[in-house]
Design a protein that fits this description.
By secondary structure, the protein is α+β, with helices and mostly antiparallel strands. It contains 24 helices and 22 strands. Helix 4 runs parallel beside helix 24 (595-614).
Length: 628
């Protein structure tokens, strides 16, 4: 059904383009007086472009007494035809349909983000009875049921671990780049992924109460609340119609010449007014596309110009979203830092854990050297790894693993590690022959362009805010590096949505920038949502109004400045078009303009508006983040 609607929509667009081309040719033939038919070929434009306008105006008036710009256009068309000014009628219809087409081309297609979230919802669960194990539909799980989750499976409902240890990828909920170790008594959420160990859990929230279902409802509600901007010509249409009718009636009464009244209706048609906004938007969208932005909503740049805050997700947006080794520390006199690194990387070479893979990758990249072969490898879910490297037993993992192996940790080592904890790092302790020898600190690294980008955003009079699912230390460290005064941590999807709602309830519009599935509700709720397209999830991209295709965040200030410049262009276009209307009305009242000349004046005004908007295509403000 969705594909059929999309096909029909595209078919309608192609039909409109064909009608406009034929109408344009007909008007050209008519004005050059190259008649080859027994009737004025301007009627082709009247029929192809004018009839749809009249029908839409009549339907709007009858069904909802909705007065839009097409009401005045319809009156001008009918009046022009009645007095035999066919070209004027055709020209007005052509310009108005051209404006309508430009507006249609700026409207985004229907998005499927909610459907993708639904597809991510687990379909089955593995329920454990007294003696048997059965696979049941996830919607049949009851509170209190005992479920078993195997490595690689998606957790079907919210619950608490009853037995087993594991690491959970919680990116769908928190956006955290690193998996979280879980054990008995820890809570787990539906939609998150069990990476390593098998565990049994007790269901605590099922069906509509589960985390993934709550997120779906958040996305739906946020999308429904986002208001659409009404076209300027339609917003003022009632006043335009009233003023036009009064002016035309008074002119007819005073002068006694109906042609003057018809001319007033023609010049009152908001042709340039209708073109003022969509032409500027299309030109700005073309400019944004050259700088790596895909604008998915036609009015997104209008909204972006009004934002007061930009809220950033941390992982994958301000950072690269992948852990890297930031420090290697040795606490044993007879073991160097390089040896600590080598033993840990060698032990981790068969690990599937992201931290283990990061240690191996960073070691090989740093030293341009292969690791040493290992034996007796053992993966300990939620703890770390154990292996034999160069005939030495190597244990690499968290502090809980060392405690289980009864390996003592000197006070100085803990103090040294704490410095890295405060910076938001994850620590992997390395023990050789059951004695702690050192540790490796890993962290998600800041994007190279992030500091300059944040600084330039501040110069644009927009306040950057950090919203992250990461813990307090990581959030504080990133905020300090970027000089961001406002930051919030441990944010679940509903927390991000609530923070944005609080800002917007104070009439302080917010732009949200994110990349993860957990960001989708906030991207929908925000006045403008921008998703990182390269590393971003499909759900986040579908929830956004704008997509940063290549993740080049240094272009964000340009987008802000472009949006503000676009609004200046729109205001200039509107001012010019209204001034032109005012002058043309006075000339029509005095009889200087007739309907044909009035239509041509409007045509010239529309061309000027289009040319002025076209300057946006190559516009760029010079600022510090410009690439040379």
């Amino acid at each position: 059904m969705e594909k059929l609607e999309t096909l029909l929509e595209w078919g309608g667009t192609k039909r409109d383009i064909v009608f406009l081309v034929l109408s344009g040719i007909a008007l050209l033939v008519s004005i050059l007086d190259m008649q080859f038919l027994p009737f004025d070929v301007a009627w082709i434009a009247i029929l192809l472009c004018g009839i749809p306008i009249i029908l839409e105006a009549v339907i709007g008036l009858i069904t909802a007494f909705d007065i839009k710009a097409d009401v005045l256009v319809s009156m001008a068309l009918i009046a022009s035809v009645l007095i035999g000014e066919d070209f004027a009628a055709g020209e007005v219809a052509f310009i108005m349909q051209l404006g309508a087409l430009l507006e249609d081309l700026t409207v985004a297609k229907a998005r499927a983000g909610i459907e993708k979230l639904v597809h991510m919802t687990p379909r089955t669960a593995r329920r454990i009875n007294a003696t048997t194990e059965e696979i049941i539909p996830a919607e049949q799980v009851q509170i209190g049921d005992i479920l078993r989750v195997l490595p690689g499976e998606t957790i079907p409902v919210d619950g608490v671990i009853e037995s087993g240890k594991t690491s959970i990828n919680q990116a769908v909920m928190t956006g955290e780049s690193l998996p979280v170790d879980k054990g008995v008594g820890d809570e787990v959420s539906s939609g998150t992924i069990n990476q390593f160990g098998s565990f049994d859990m007790k269901a605590t929230k099922v069906g509509e109460d589960s985390s993934i279902q709550r997120m779906i409802r958040l996305v739906e509600s946020a999308d429904a609340e986002k208001a659409k901007i009404v076209g300027v010509a339609d917003k003022w249409a009632t006043w335009i119609v009233v003023i036009a009718l009064i002016s035309a009636a008074l002119t007819w009464l005073i002068s006694g010449e109906i042609i003057r009244s018809v001319t007033i209706l023609v010049v009152f048609c908001p042709c340039a007014l209708v073109l003022a906004t969509p032409t500027a938007i299309m030109a700005a969208i073309g400019n944004a596309t050259k700088h790596g932005f895909l604008v998915r909503e036609g009015d997104a740049l209008e909204r972006l110009a009004a934002v007061r805050y930009i809220t950033f997700d941390k992982t994958g947006t301000l950072t690269y979203g992948t852990p890297n080794v930031v420090a290697v520390e040795s606490i044993a006199q007879n073991v160097s830092e390089k040896e600590i690194y080598m033993y840990a990387a060698s032990a981790e070479q068969r690990s599937e854990h992201p931290l283990g893979k990061a240690i191996l990758r960073c070691y090989e990249n740093h030293y341009q050297d292969d690791v040493v072969s290992q034996q007796q490898f053992q993966m300990i879910p939620g703890r770390g790894v154990q292996a034999v490297v160069k005939e030495k037993e190597v244990i690499a993992g968290n502090i809980e693993l060392l405690q289980e192996k009864q390996i003592s940790i000197p006070h100085e080592a803990l103090k040294q590690a704490e410095n890295y904890f405060q910076k938001g790092c994850t620590i992997i302790f390395v023990a050789l022959e059951n004695k702690l020898s050192g540790f490796i600190a890993l962290a998600d690294t800041l994007r190279e362009d992030a500091p300059k980008t944040i600084a330039e955003i501040k110069k644009a009079d927009v306040v950057p805010v950090l919203l992250t699912g990461d813990h307090e230390n990581a959030a504080k460290h990133i905020a300090k590096q970027l000089e961001m005064e406002q930051f919030y941590f441990n944010c679940l999807p509903e927390d991000k949505l609530n923070y944005i709602a609080n800002y917007q309830n104070k009439k302080e519009q917010v732009c949200m920038i994110g990349d993860g599935i957990n960001d989708a509700p906030a991207l929908k709720k925000a006045y403008v949502g921008i998703a990182m397209g390269g590393i971003g999830s499909d759900v986040a991209v579908d929830a956004a109004d704008i997509v940063l295709v290549n993740d080049d965040m240094k272009q964000l200030p340009h987008l802000l400045y472009l949006a503000k410049r676009m609004m200046i262009t729109i205001k200039c276009n509107l001012t010019f078009s209204m001034l032109l209307n005012f002058i043309a009305i006075i000339l029509a009242m005095t009889g200087i303009l007739n309907p044909v000349v009035g239509a041509l004046v409007h045509n010239a005004g529309s061309v000027i508006v289009i040319v002025n908007s076209a300057f946006l295509l190559k516009w760029r403000k010079k600022y510090n983040c410009d690439s040379k």
